[in-house]
Design brief:
This protein is mainly beta. The protein is built from 3 helices and 19 strands. Helix content is 13%, strand content 52%. Keywords: Hydrolase, Protease, Signal.
Length: 222
């Protein structure tokens, strides 16, 4: 049976909601979604903020290259991506080195928690490090937003502060933080909504971890 840290999980999740804005602002790549149209402008959600952007204009490092009503093509950091209307946010602004790094450095945040903005299968998500969790854990709301197919999962169970709960176990194609990517990572989908994705040991076990002053350093194992 998978395990979710119980002694501090409620406290961590409560604090996590307040950390979301700071996480988005600190992300190295821009989180961008195409939400709608404002006349001849695209309504883009850039790092959590709604912005009306005209074709050819650049806002917060994101340039709108093309707009056809159902899709918006944006460019950031020399990389072009196509966004679907109403689709989930993606990380824009990568310089091509994503996935090739070997070290993650996370500063301590509010309440002594380590947080990071990252991506699951290319889609932007906020992470909260939880060394007491057996696997990555996310709410059903996040899994739905990421388009994770329940048909690809298996039934499982987890122990929480409220006892055993029915969950689904799924394999994530890739999990990225900064320029570091881990492939084929096991994750657990909880039945309830969760404000952040818990970064558990199915990801953390790929790293040597140590604290350095007020930072957590993760060095990828060979």
């Amino acid at each position: 049976m998978n395990r979710i840290s119980t002694s501090s999980s409620r406290r961590r999740l409560a604090a996590a909601g307040a950390l979301l804005c700071a996480l988005v602002a600190a992300a190295q790549a821009q989180s961008v979604a195409f939400s709608g149209m404002l006349g001849d402008k695209a309504l883009l959600i850039i790092n959590g903020q709604a912005r009306g952007v005209a074709v050819g204009a650049t806002v917060e490092g994101v340039k709108l290259v093309r707009l056809d009503g159902t899709q918006a093509q944006v460019e950031a950091g020399g990389k072009t991506q196509t966004l679907r209307l109403g689709g989930t946010a993606v990380l824009a602004g990568d310089t091509g080195g994503r996935g090739k790094g070997t070290r993650i450095v996370l500063p301590v945040g509010s309440g002594g928690h380590y947080t990071a903005m990252g991506a699951i299968n290319g889609h932007s998500v906020p992470f909260l490090v939880d060394t007491g969790a057996t696997t990555i854990a996310m709410g059903a709301d996040v899994a739905n937003r990421l388009g994770l197919d329940p048909a690809d999962s298996t039934q499982s169970a987890a122990m929480t502060a409220n006892g055993a709960v029915a969950t689904r176990t799924i394999t994530l194609r890739q999990v990225t933080i900064g320029d570091v990517t881990v492939y084929n990572v096991e994750a657990m989908v909880m039945p309830q909504a969760m404000p952040v994705v818990l970064l558990g040991n199915s990801f953390l076990s790929h790293f040597q971890m140590h604290s350095d002053n007020d930072t957590l350093v993760l060095d990828k194992k060979n």
